[in-house]
Write a structure and sequence with these properties.
membrane, amino-acid transport, transmembrane, Amino acid transporter transmembrane domain-containing protein
């Protein structure tokens, strides 16, 4: 039973990494399209779709292969999430809202935004420390393509 649960977890992890690759490789995909696409032709022409399909597939395959190579890749993603995702999703919008719309310091919106930004900053610190610790622990028993 344990092997089946572990296999299901691995399949879920691969799908998660594929989804992350599709989203987080967008800047890379944009560069590829500037290099290999023909702007004079329709974006859905075979001339533009085929390089897009091949290059995006190749970048996802390479990213997924790197993820499978490192048994602590999830820990690295957690570290990137702590420094990238949490600030962009929970801290920056609250701070920018308060700076842009300047709600009164007596309003609930101001203090709710401030509380969310401060609590999220604490989560960034805790998440980053926990991720670095887990990377160090996992790196001690590192094996390429390990099934941990």
């Amino acid at each position: 039973m344990l092997d089946v649960d572990h296999s299901i977890h691995n399949v879920e992890l691969i799908f998660h990494i594929l989804n992350c690759c599709v989203i987080y490789l967008q800047p890379t995909n944009e560069v590829f399209e500037k290099w290999f696409a023909n702007p004079k032709m329709d974006q859905f022409s075979a001339r533009n779709v085929m390089p897009r399909l091949v290059l995006r597939s190749l970048s996802v395959i390479i990213g997924t292969t790197f993820a499978a190579m490192f048994p602590f890749f999830g820990d690295i993603m957690a570290l990137f999430g702590a420094f990238g995702v949490i600030p962009l999703d929970f801290i920056l919008p609250m701070v920018l809202y308060n700076l842009t719309f300047k709600p009164s310091r007596q309003s609930i919106i101001f203090w709710a935004n401030t509380l969310i930004a401060v609590a999220s900053s604490a989560l960034v610190a805790m998440g980053a420390l926990a991720s670095v610790r887990q990377i160090i622990v996992d790196a001690k028993t590192y094996n390429l393509f390990a099934n941990v």
